[in-house]
Amino acid sequence: KLKFAEIYFAQAGRRVFHVDVNGQRALSNFDIVAAAGGSNVAVDRVVPVTVSNGQITITLVPVISNPKLSAI
Question: Which positions ≥6 away from 32 have C-beta within 8 Å?
Fold first, then answer.
């Protein structure tokens, strides 16, 4: 479960990014404010993953501004 909350930007479209998990695109063009329905609102995304080598790799790929992840 990936947890996000936008506490800096108040408008959608100001922070957009992709999330890759173990080399596979899990979220495309993810905008926290748009997904949560506003700023200062938490939103979770469940990403099923198969662990084959004892680790999970999460890569945040910027589209607009710097990506952010609040918790795992």
Answer: 4, 5, 6, 15, 43, 68
Residue 13, C-beta contacts closer than 8 angstroms, at least 6 positions apart = 31, 33, 34, 64
Helix runs in 1-72, H state only: 32-36
Collapsed DSSP state (helix, strand, coil) of residue 28:
strand
Which residues, 6+ apart, have CB-to-CB distance to 37 below 8 Å? none
Q: What is the pLDDT along the chain (72 residues), one digit of tens a residue?
A: 999 999 999 999 999 999 999 999 999 999 999 999 999 999 999 999 989 889 999 999 999 999 999 999
Q: Of how many residues is the chain composed?
A: 72
Single-letter amino acid code for the residue at 7: I
| CA–CA gap between residue 33 and residue 71 (Å, rounded) | 16
Compute the C-alpha angle 69/70/72, nearest 5°.
Answer: 85
